[in-house]
Write a structure and sequence with these properties.
Layout: H1 10-16, H2 28-36, H3 40-61, E1 68-69, H4 71-97, H5 106-109, H6 121-132, H7 136-144, H8 149-177, H9 183-222, H10 226-249, H11 254-277, H12 279-284, H13 289-305, H14 312-337, E2 340-341, H15 362-369, H16 378-383, H17 396-420, H18 424-431, H19 434-437, H20 441-449, H21 460-469, H22 482-496, H23 503-538, H24 550-572, H25 578-607, H26 615-637, H27 645-657, H28 669-713, H29 739-749
Antiparallel strand pairs: 1-2
Length: 763
Amino acid sequence: MPGGRAGTADEDLELTHDPSLPPTAVDDAVREAEERKWTPTKIAIWSAIALLGGVAWFMLAIIRGETVNAIWFVFASVCTYLIAYRFYSKVIERYITKPNDRRATPAEYKADGKDYVRTDRNVLFGHHFAAIAGAGPLVGPVIAAQMGYLPGTIWIILGVVLAGAVQDYLVLFFSMRRGGRSLGQMAREELGVIGGTAALIATLLIMVIIVAILALVVVNALGESPWGVFSVGMTIPIALFMGVYLRFIRPGRVLEVSLIGFVLLMAAIIGGGIVAETEWGAAFFHLDKVTIAWGIIVYGFIAAILPVWLLLAPRDYLSTFMKIGVIVMLALAIIVVRPEINVPAFSEFASRENGPVFPGALFPFLFVTIACGALSGFHALISSGTTPKLVEKERQTRLIGYGGMLMESFVAIMALVAAISIDRGLYFAMNSPAALTGGTVETAATWVNSLGLSGVNLTPEILSQTAANVGEESIVSRTGGAPTLAVGLAHIMQQFIGGTAMMAFWYHFAIMFEALFILTAVDAGTRVARFMLQDSIGNFVPKFKEHSWRPGAWLCTAIMVAAWGAVLLMGVTDPLGGINTLFPLFGIANQLLAAIALSVCLAIAAKRGSFKYIWIVALPLAFAAVVTITASAYKIFSPVPAVGYFANNAAFSKALAEGKTEFGTAKTVAAMEAVVRNTMIQGWLSVIFVVLSIIVIITALIATVKAFRNEGGGIAHTDHEDPALPSRVYAPSGFIPTPSERELVAEWNKVPAEQRLEKPVHH
């Protein structure tokens, strides 16, 4: 659409509003008066929130005794989120996005009952949260706890406020204004052919890594765990039953089917314990990691080609209830139990590069290890994927985009607290690869005690007793973060409800909870990757752009599943411990994708003329670019084998050339050859990712400078937003409507049904 600035059509909207209908937006003057009205009660509440948050941060960051109480993590995070949402996100709304509820969203003017459906804001918040909250906020903080509690806490909370939530909100809003276009399409329009092509290729490759690592976390959690395999396996028929129930038996009864699903999940967890104790159950469900990996690959293909309503949507409902419910329950348990944290603010490994859980210095590797809880490029694909096609009103994007990401950050904080609440020696025994721990309770205890950690004295009995308490044969070298989080959650929850006898239930409840998180992301990630590949091939073979064309859908799904499946199997069989070597690549790739998304947002904000407040986008972009490019440089050029992929490759290649039959953590020639192959692939992927991302960032900066020069010369920019059309519906913007919003809703409720558009429905 040629011509002028975003929002120049707003004056015309007033002229085209249907006079037989109530207003489609609260009057701007009334809304601003409400926002600026500060009553004594309001002042007291916000003063109390600020004071409590300040005290909590003071206790965490300044007063550091031998222990710190876990409740301060809850108060510091929640108070910071509330202040950021109320004030900082309002600045973004007022000066950058400038939403206009008189303007129809794509869900209204493109409504088709399939992809474009007006969805109630509360349901959509859950939908969006379920899609963005994969394994990252659970795994990254657990792994990063190696550095101590303070660096991770600061990055998770401040990172989400200034970076992660900003990205999610802006991408969602800009995509919605463009008819729900994908990040790749927006990059192509805003950055030109070179930047757009680089963004598209990088996004596809990064998606492969992201989905593979998510699947690897599930594999590590379920490996040789009959209870876990049975319980998580049962989630598939439960989700299928829910899909059929909601489609044919009781359409539209979301709460009802979610409650039924929850009861069935509890039955699956309890049943898993019973089945695992039987001789046949222990034999049948005791699977090695390679077998489970192949199972997830087959599952990923089938799940991605099934209709959305049959598996993906019901799992969304179920996982949203579970995710938010469990995190709130864990926060409540922390406040009641008040566990003391013995982990230091900065650990012995904060200033070293040879940490056993992941190698590398605090800067930049802490920031890329904690990816999804603070800043995640994967979210940009969801924010420019399904969500913008479902938004009812423009003002709701702040709640869904910014607010949804704050909720995910809180998940990350709870994961961090759970991980640091357990014994430090136990933490290192669980999260270090078997090549270091030896794989047995005796060798693991000896190795952990040799690390010289203050206050750590691990015994084989502690490891054996913990494994028995959680109903597992062994917890040694259960890497990937998920088992550690499950033990931490079980440790806190058994003090809240049930005692030691309930630890096995709480552990497997947590594993189920995490698997629901992750499998949702594997489903959605594979589906999004399929759409992206279809669109890319569609530029040359137009038939592929028809997403309903079965041969194209099946072929593209098979290609993407084969790609991430190959990386998954590489990680599962990696002698260095797949998660330990692949997770830094995952974090770097994820945040390079975030840098790409923020680059697109920077160019769009500049073309909209938001130069005075463009620092809101430039600040997180600059930080993400510096951190991820530095981390990439370390992984590519570092001479330290534990850090650099090519240095590691050279060390193992030399050992093979010298005729050695074992080297380092690889005990066979085949294992040594696997390390050589894997490190070469990982190294070249790092090179490709960083080069493509730098191209995108440079083209975005060029587009921004051009926009600034055009602004000074009074030249109008090309506007890629869809034409502004008047809305014929109304809905409040937040969870709780304001007084003026309630009045307007009451007016709309009086309008005869035949004069209104259909009620919003669930997608």
